[in-house]
Each structure stands twice: as structure tokens, then as C-alpha cells.
Fold each of these.
Amino acid sequence: MNTDYIIAIEASIAAGKVIMEIYQKDFQIDFKNDNSPLTEADIAANAVIMEYLNQTGIPIISEENKQTPYSIRKNWISCWIVDPLDGTKEFVKKNGEFTVNIALVKNGLPEFGVIYVPATGVLYFGDVSRQKAYRITIDHSNYTISDILKNASEIQPQQNLNTIRVVGSRSHMNQETLDFVENLRQKSQQEIEMVSKGSSLKFCLVADGNADVYPRFAPTMEWDTAAGQAICMSVGLKVIDNTTNLAMKYNKESLLNSFFLVSNEL
């Protein structure tokens, strides 16, 4: 496997270890200008990830970094896009549904993505060029990269013939999503099952066959979605920007995403 990809996997696990150390104690919660929560785990995980990714010499966009001006970023061919702790609300609620997201983007499209779930030790990673994505459960205090690469199971989406499983957010369900679900019900004449998950795990549910479609009609940033899109693209799923009707792109002038849809054929 590409050395940079291995570094990203190692960074995600190391960040997850730091996150869990903070998760298991009392921690302070601050709030950003947009009222989203910020904890010491976000900051600590970001520091760990930066230490790893700086080894690659590839520039980095991270939620917890001061953003580089677009006048400079627009000249980047490749960059990392990082959310050190995706699902901070889930972290604060202590429901375990938070992740570390790291993606490598080239010419605006994801090439590789890793999503690590610190509370459960579940690790997903996908290589778009090889059209392969994997899942493995690890012990973050006792693992080797060679064991991960040897023992990870390949994942694939699966269509359910009787029911369409729609992923919804634990924190961001809204009327537009409900309208989409009702339209899908009428068009398909099939039963609809709602599956709720926090953070980037929603992408993983579709990629590994536990859901069929993920509509997102609420704001997200590039670091929320890049790793999940890489994993989905690695198993042949489409992640479509509702504004352009093309694959979602990254390192844009605005790091705010359009609404989007993750699906196989829908």
C-alpha cells in the first residue's frame, strides 16, 4: 500500500487513542462562532494527526487549523482533508458515534479515505484507484499495519430487494429529508426503513451494505465528507452534489458543501 495511505491509517488510530483518553474523563466543552461544540479532544486529536501527516509533505486542510487562503490553495494538486473528531455532538453525548476522518484529495476528487471509530475500534479505509474498501476492528493499543492490511475484510454495498434503507442523521433530520423519503416511497412503491447514525458513519453504512441511500439536505463542510466519499467511491457508489449533479469536489474556494446524495442506483 502507498506509504502516504499507511501514514493516514496510523494517524487516525493514534488520534483515536488520544480521543478515548479524554472521552473517559470529565472534559470541558467550548463553542465556536457557529455554536458548534469544541472539546479538548478535537484539539488534541488534530495535533496528533498533523504530526503524522506533516511527514508526507502534502498540504493539509483540517477543521481545527487556520485555513490557508484560496489564492494559495487553488494551486494545490493534492491535499489532505481532515476532521480530527467528526461528530463532536455525539462525543459530548457519549453515544460512541464519532469518528476520525482523513482523506487524500487529488485534483478535487478523493483518492483515499480512512474513517476510524475510536469507541469501537472499527476502521474503514478505501482506495479509489483500486476500487477496494475494507473494514476491520482493532485494539488501538495493540495493532500492526501489516495485520490490518492482511486481516481487513473487503466491503461492498448491497441492495435490499424488499426495503429501501435510508440513512438519516441523529442530529440533523429536517423536513427536506422527510420529503425526500416520502417521494422515494411513492416512486419505488417499496417499504422505507430509516437508519439513524451520527458522524461520517452514515457513509460507511451505505458502503458496507447496511443501508441503501444517504440523502443530506443540511450543511456540511469538506472535512465532514471527503473520507466518507472516498470509501463510497471505492466500492462504486456515487456521491452526487445536488447543485452540479456531478461528484462532490474538494479544496473549493468555499469549504462548505452543497447538499448531496449517496446512492447506488437511486
Note: The chain is about 30% helix and 30% strand.
Amino acid sequence: MRGVPAFRPKLAPPVPRARPAFRLLLALLFGLLGAATAGAQQSQPPNRQVTVQNETDLTLNFLYVFPRGSADRGPDRLGDEMVAPGATFRARLGRQSACTFDVVAVWQDGREEARNGVDICRNPRLVFGDPAMPTLEVAVANRSEVVLRELYASSDGGAEWGPDRLGSQVIETGGAFRLRMRTRACRFDLRAVYADDREEVKSQLDLCAERGVVFDRSGVPPLPRHSLVLVNRHLATVQEVYVSASTDSDWGPERLGTTTLLPVGEETTVELEGECEADIRIVFPNGGAEERREVDICATPRIVLTPGWVLGAEPPAEAAAARPGAGAARAEGEAGPLRLRNAGPLPIVEVYAAPPGEPRGADRLGADVLGVGETLELEAPDADACAADLLVVFRDGREVSRPGLDLCQGEEIEIR
């Protein structure tokens, strides 16, 4: 009997050995590929950067570094940053094949400093100012009740004040600022400008010996003082009063105080400091407000607040009637303002009285309304301009007009 043959697995055919010439060809191919990759990497320009060193008195706001002779400065290399006096900053220029650039620095006072043909490969540091110049530091304090907005220093008797040393900063009431200057001089004049545009100058200060300066407005000449009387003959209580110089950019403090109101029929006196020309703003409890600009409070120290008072100066007759003890009555036979009575079914929300044929002008009611049964006196701007066209608007939008009225005859008319 024949035996069972032994199991023999199949084997893969043997791989023929590579010939020496083939192996040499593979090595050459890999070598060429590596050389090409290295060459491509070497062909990219390097990342350039430059260190900016500020040894001046001013903050560096913008820095432009661009190819030599280019008309386009390109982006600001500082980005959102600024370089303060004594500080450094590393500006990254990206991949650049060139070494020579033009540079423009823009300082906080807007002055520009240009440098042409700067080789940043040979010297990758831009130094502005003289590092060998001594630094003078002085603490400047504000002990006044007004924000100090600008500060100037001059070593030539104020002939040239130079830039605002505060830059974008201010010195708050009770605050201080460290004035830092690169200089060999010691004697300076300092000029402070407050938020209200008043100035205070301190002359011939030895800042090498006196390292602290205090501004307290003691050197500011006092302004004239005025008393302004406000009489409320409006249709509602006045909740807030603002009076400020016409040259001011804001209304300033509220003059009545947080716990005081000016009810209808009463008056108050506001003490002011400054020039004669002022702006006046009154605010009612409902948030409505009225303003009158460029009022000569020296010539008109008493203002009667009535509907339409924003149109012009207070008529003399109205002022006399508003004085304490005078009452509302007039002398017998004396003409007075036109009295308008609301005899309609709804409140009146707008009243216009303008010279015949002219635009309607300002609403005499302002933020108020004239309720049913209530009356309103309409004063003429002056005795020579009594004729007017009257236009009344009710709350539902209905309009009633009365052309050719005489505002100086003291009569009463009803509007329905």
C-alpha cells in the first residue's frame, strides 16, 4: 500500500536580485529629488524683521517700512500698537528679498520723520532719538476741579510750545501724569489747558531741582460772575435747567440740583461764571426739552419761560408782568398778548404763529400740550411785528388756521 504524500505549501517565486545598474539609477533619482526640494526651499526670501527703539519724548503712532523708491507706503507696521518713549517694538516685515527700505515714522503730534535707503540686513534696529541724551522726569498733578486736557513744555520762554505732552491722555481731577523729556535743559515753562479751554502757565520752573508741579487754577484769571433769573410761566414744571457758554461743547452741570424743581409760577436764580453769551436748556418731567442758543444774559438777566420763549428775547411787557407782586393783570387800557383758548374737544398739541406769508416757524407749545379749556398767551416777537397767521393742531391731527391776527391787541379767541 502506497503511503500518503507529505503536504508541501506553495512558495512565491523568488524575486530576482536587482542589477547593479538599476540600483544606481534609483539612487540618482532620489538624489535629484532631494536637491530640487532643497533648492525650492532656498529660493524663498527670508522673513525680515526690525527692532524699533524710541528714545524721543513723543509716542510713535505709525511706522511705514516699504521698498526703496516706492510711492506706496504699505501697511502700518505697528498695527494696533504704539511705541511709547523709552520703549521698543519688533516690527515683522514678512518675506522680503531686499535689504534696503525707506522708512517713515509718524509721531503723536502728526510730525513725520523719513529715512531713505535703510539697510536692515546690516543693522536690524531703528533708533529714533539720542539714547545718550539724559532723561528728565517730572510729576505733574491736577489739584483743580476741572479735567486737565493738554500739557505743553517750552525751554525758550514759550516762543515754541511744541506738541501736547499728554497725547491721547488727560489728567483727571486729583490725578497725576509723569512728564518725561529727553533734554539737557532744566528751566521750562509749562502750560496747562483745561477742559473748559481756560489756560494756566507756570514760568521759569527749574525741573531738575523741582521734580513735582501742581496745577490748581490759581493762575487762571477769574471770569465775570452773573445772576440769571428764570421764571416758569410754562404749562408744566421744569425739572432740569442747564446754562453753559455758547462756546462750550457740552451743557455742563444741572443747575437746579437733584432735589429741586421749578414749578409753574415760581422762579429761581442761577449763579454763573463766564462770558455773557450763553445757551439755555430746560427739561420737563416727561423728558421733553427746549433750548435757546446765544442768549445775552448780561443784557437779559431775567428769562420768562413760556410756550414759545425759544423764539427770541423776552418782551419787556412780559418781563414786567412776571415780576413778583405784579400779577397777571395789566393797567387799564393797556394792550397785551393774544390769548388763545382751547374750546375744542381734544387737547391742542401744536401752535404756530408766524408773520403773514412766512414759514410757520417753531412750535410755540414745545413739549407741552394745551388742554381742553386751557388758555395760552401768544406774544409778538416785538411791537413792530404784531401781525401773524395762526395755525393750531389738535391731538387727532385736525388743523385750524386763523390768518391775519393781531398778537398785540390783548383779545381772547377761541379755537374749536
Note: The radius of gyration is 41 Å.
Amino acid sequence: MRVVQLNLHPAPAGLPPAELFLQWPTLADIPEAVAAGGPRVSVVQAADHDTRLVRNGIEYRFVDLRAYASPRARGRHVASLLRGNLPDVLHIHSLACAEGAFAIAQLLPSLPIVLQDHADRVPSWWRRPVWRRWMRSVDAVAFTAPALAHRFEAAGLFPPMLRVFAIPESSSRFTPGNVEAARASTGLTGSPAVLWVGHLNDNKDPLTVLDGFALLAAEMPEARLYCVFGSAPLSEAVQARIEADDRVRGRVHLLGRVPHAQVETLMRAADLFVSGSHAESCGFALLEAMACGLTPVVTDIPSFRELTGNGAVGRLYPVGDSARCGAALINAARKRTPRELVREHFQARLAFPALGRRWAAAYTQLDTARRLRA
């Protein structure tokens, strides 16, 4: 079976392919994982130049689409490129590319198309009628968790027979490593040492997590919380909350932005990973934490339920509930999931080889359905 993965979101202008693979690691990670599962995979990437190259057995075709002003025109051009060597399945990244998918389907009606969610939003009400028309040309969609499709279904955007696959957006190459060496390298202390990785904003909800950690610290005074973050619109509120509470003052360390490699070392050194997210299309920090064998204490949202096996590893708590967050942290600290079990869960369901197998199975379903129609 031959599959083409299409990225219509353009690569940064002037960036050579070698640099692009460093900035966008999933550009190679996902097709390589799928190819390991059996299908022959090639990638078409929108860019500001026309280039072909082969990397680790995957053919990449960078296509200059700047002359095509509309999504429909870009889709028609891509269809003309595919027509000479038609794949068995077309995998398009982002539901926002529904119009481009429709244009491709108009010219290549026998080609099965699957759109993959990447934190895509439901369109405004006035755009929904045309979206419904576009989505009738698509054979399947993929979300990290099936429940993430519900908001699109509730808006009437998906036709009744549309297949919905549950496949995470990506994975992680982090590994557990040595805890003692990681603690010596990072200076992390605490029993337990709890790690947060995420922006200090309303969606990530650091204030609920701080209140939950306060309950843990009251029970276990040696507990410490380390916060890695990028943007911080709630920085002042977080600082004020820390200073106002004796239970957390001196026990919370705001590390700010750190190099990505250092995140892996911090995850190896910590005991628990905590998140307060209200919504996530996947949860990359959670994936990285589980790759390191770190016990997760995260909100009970669809993507986190899917990644943790409905709480089979770690603990889930309701969004915005600091009391339940604290109880989950205390419970996880007292009865930690062994790192080996977290890592086994990650390897079996979430590592790149597992994602490759899931995509190979999805492609096979679509190709089989096409053959039956024919």
C-alpha cells in the first residue's frame, strides 16, 4: 500500500529542509513510524521552493504553492501532482484543510482521504454549510480521542458514515534514564518531586494546580513543585498565590523556559507529573512524561483519558477542582505507579511504533473500503 501524507500549512520561508526537520520533528517522525508498520509513505509539504529528497527511506516533495491564492486552487494543484502516481490513501494534516481536501476529491474521486485533527477549531456558524459540503468528500478523520470529534458532530459538520479514528497526534523519544543521575544534574529535591510543564495561562490553570499542591504539601511537607513554562500571562497571579500560602511558599520553584533536552532530564528526576489543562488536542508534555515513566496526575479530559488508558496509569481529576487535584496528588504520592509500568503502557500504546501500527490499520480500512466500492 502506498500513502501520501500532505501538509498544506507552509514551511517557514527560507528554511532549508535540514533545518526544517529540526524545527518540525514530526514531519519525519510520523511518516517513518507509519513506514515501519508496512505502508510505503511519501510526504508532500507546502513550501516556498520545489525540492525532492529522500530521508530514511521516505520521499519528501517540497512544493511551492505561493502562486495559488485559494485553498481550492492549492488543492487542485496538489491533485494534479498526485494524478501521475496515485496513492492508495491520502492523509492530510489538519481539519482546517477541508476545502483543499474537497478540491482534491473533486479531481481524484476514487482516492480515500483522511483528515487529522491538530487542535483545529469548529468553524463559525456562517461557514458551516460549506464545511458540511467539503466534509462529504472525506472518508475519515482522526483525533487523539474519539470524544474530541463530538463538538464537530454536534455542529453537524460530519456526515453520518464518516469514520473516526483514535490516534494521537504524535509521540516522544524521551526515555526514563537514571533517576539519581537526573536529580544530581538538575538539583531537584522533594519527596515527592512534582513537575509541571506548560504555559501559565487560563487553559493550563496553574492556580488550581497550586491549590492542589498546597493540600499535598500539608500532608507531605517535603513535597516540592517545579514549574517549567514559556508564556506566562498569569505570572503575577501565580506569584501572589505562592506568597500568600505558607503551605507552598518556598516549596514551589518557577524555572521558566528551559531547553527541550533539559525537560527530559527534569522528567527523569521527578516523581509525579501534574497538569491542570481544561482542553488539549493531544498533550505533548504528558506524552513526554509518560515516555520517561513519570506518574501523571492530570485533568479528566478526553485526550488525557485516552493517553492514560482512562487512568490505568496515574490519576485523573475534574477540571478546575483543586480539592480533587490535591487528593489525586496525595494518592499518587502514596501509591505511585511504578515507572516500568508507565513506560510499558507508553511503549504498547503511545510510542512511535504503536502509532505506526495504528495508522497502518486505519489506512488498510480505507483502502479495503475503496476496493469494495470499486
Note: The mean pLDDT is 96.
Amino acid sequence: MDSDRSARTALIVGAGVAGLTAATALAREGWQVEVVEVGPPDATSGWGLCLTGPSLRALDALSLADTCLAEGYGMSTITHVDAHGEPVGTVRLPRLIDARRPAMAGIARPVLHRILYAEAQRWGVVVRHGATAAAMDQDGELVRVRLSDGTVRTVALLVGADGIRSATRGLLRLVSSRAFHGQMVWRALVPRPRWATGIHQFAGKTGTAGLVPVSKEQAYVFLTENGVGLDGRLPEAELAPRLRHLLEPFPARMAETLPLISASEAVVRRPVLTHFVEGAWQRGGAVLIGDAAHAPAPQMASGAALAIEDGLVLARELGRHDSVGAGLQTFVRRRRQRCRTLVETSVRIVALERARRHDEAYPLIDSCHRLMAEPV
């Protein structure tokens, strides 16, 4: 990468949702961008996610919302169902891009990754796999980064977008402690039932389950399992039988998914972890974004929204300031409270679910979605 001190050069660590979105947003603003990713090109984690209204609004600013809606599944409602199978309320989410398009979209993670990856490359972003940042220091106004393959980059901007277990966060000496909340979240890809035209969430006696369409043909089942330890690993062969067992007590519509899960080739089980970097997110010309800076629990389905917004706001603030340092400081000021609120709200929802106080969790979810609908 050109290290000319007058060039706007950026190195992004991590080719996930946050990293690829930031790469495209910066490239559109004239930055020369390189992304390094320690994993292989096809290493996406999990089956699916929700692109809530704020996600689509930010993606629309990058001309990607319609592509995601076309390849995902557009929807506008969340239906809550009690432990007896009775609907207890439907949340109609605000349509943030316009009244003709859905409020949100379910999408398969590999599909979203492909869309973001292709768009970044279309704008000239270089993505290198098999390497990550191993050391860094500030060199005047520039950042000198040594990669794990021994090569060195000197850039105006370093962006740590390498997730909740961010190594970049350690290199910047920024402190954060992850919290485990006694839950495991499960996901399994299944054929979409015809009745699943929005998100359905079911309260259970020992957990919460639901279904999210990700295309016309597919959906993913999710379940949060309470009262488990962080070291509770299961062999891969036991995942599908265990998930079916956990879903058996749920109402009839969830029961319909049991044979579909038995045919599913893979089930994902992950601990529910959260964290928030309380102090600075930046040092000199380096900054953290996405889960590296703030990771909510999945109950609000908004981790992707924060990551995508981060990439867009970062590029905009850097374009409004003469120095990288000033742009990064304004970026953090704009993002801190919004991200903190979502993380803290998601933790409260986890606690209410574990206490089986679902009737208190539902309005909290609704109010937080409406807060997130406000302009960034």
C-alpha cells in the first residue's frame, strides 16, 4: 500500500460486516483501502441475521439496500407468541427507507458477506486473507502496522473491525471485559414454512425460540437456552438432536420445524456474550468499530445495524474533518451513547428472558427498535 504521507490510506482488520461496510464507505470517499482477514474467503459464521431498519437505511446510503432485499426476505412485523401458543402482540416496525419497501430483511450470512465483499472490490478495495495485525505504533500522524506475515503497512487510518475477541483492541491497549449471560443461542437453517412471513418469537418455559425468514425458500430457527455454562461444548453430532429436544415443549408452529431440523446439515450454537469499551475507542489514527467496540446480545437483532452504521458514519466524519484524529474523535462521540443504549438494553432483555418475564421484555424490545429508528 502506498505510504505517501499525503495519501488517504486505510488498513482495516477484519472482513466481516463492519469491516467490509467501512471499506466500501471509505473507498467511496476516495480512500485507498486494504482489508486483512485472518480467515479464508468463505469463512462466515452462523446461518442468518436480521437487517433491521437502521441497517437498511445505512445500506441504502451505499446503494446496497435493494440488493439485500432482493436476495434476502423483506418483512415488517415481529409476532410474539406466549407459552400456550397464543399471539400476545405484533410489533410493526417503522419503514425507514420509504413506505414502499419493507422495514427489515432476514438474510443468510454467506449471502450478505458475498454482497458486501463484491461491493468493496468493485470500489477498488484490496482484501487479503490469511493475515492480521500483529503489532502497531504511531509514526507521527501515521500508523505503522506489522502484519502476522511479517509485512509492514504505514497508513493514515487503522480500523479494528475484528469482532468481540478483537486482537486489535489489545494492540491499542483499550480495555474491555466480555460478559457471559448464562445463555447459548442456537440457529439452524430450514425450509421456510409458508406461514413465516415475518419474525415469530415464542416464549417457552425454559427459553425463547423463533423463526426468521432469510429468503423465499429458507428461514432459520433460533433458540436461546438458559442456565448453561460457558464451557458447555457439545460434539457436532449431538447439536441437531439437542436442538430438537429443546424445541419440543414449544407451541405447535415451532413443533413443525422439528423434522426440518433433523434434515439440516448443520446447527450453530454460540454463547451469549456482550461487551462495551467504556473508555476511548481510538488512539491516534486507529479506531475500533462494530463488535470490537460494542457487542450486544442477539435478542435485539441489531448487532449488524450498529456495525453497518459504524462504517458509514466513520467515513462521513473523516470526510468532514481535516485530520484523521479529529474525525475519529467526532465519530466516537456520535456513536457512543447509541451503542451503549443498545448493549445495555439487550442485557436487560436477557435478564427478563431468564426470569421468564416475557411480558416485560416485549415492550422493551419495541421501544428500543423505535429508539434505533431515530437518525444516527
Note: The chain has eleven helices and 20 strands.
